[in-house]
Amino acid sequence: xxxxxxxxxxxxxxxxxxxxxxxxxxxxxxxxxxxxxxxxxxxxxxxxxxxxxxxxxxxxxxxxxxxxxxxxxxxxxxxxxxxxxx
Length: 86
Hints:
- By secondary structure, the chain is of the alpha+beta class.
- The chain has a single domain (about 5-85), classed as Arc Repressor Mutant (Orthogonal Bundle), CATH 1.10.1220.
- It has helices at about 30-40, 45-60, 65-85, and strands spanning about 5-10, 20-25.
- The relative contact order is 0.11.
- It contains three helices and two strands.
- Strands 1-2 form a two-stranded antiparallel sheet.
- The chain is elongated and about 55 Å long.
């Protein structure tokens, strides 16, 4: 099974709306499925992948286990930054 490379423009939702180009490597079958979904939905592959990422983030935000891990990392980062600020 080969890999396909997909380039995306990801939107940053802070300050002015900016985009970021992102290149990912995915298996050919995953790329083919995404292309088929985009075609059926009548949107670009970029839009299909971008919407999938938005939906994945929303699912994570609603997941209690993910939120607990996120809070732990935030606290660890806060402690590190406070040490560096001394």
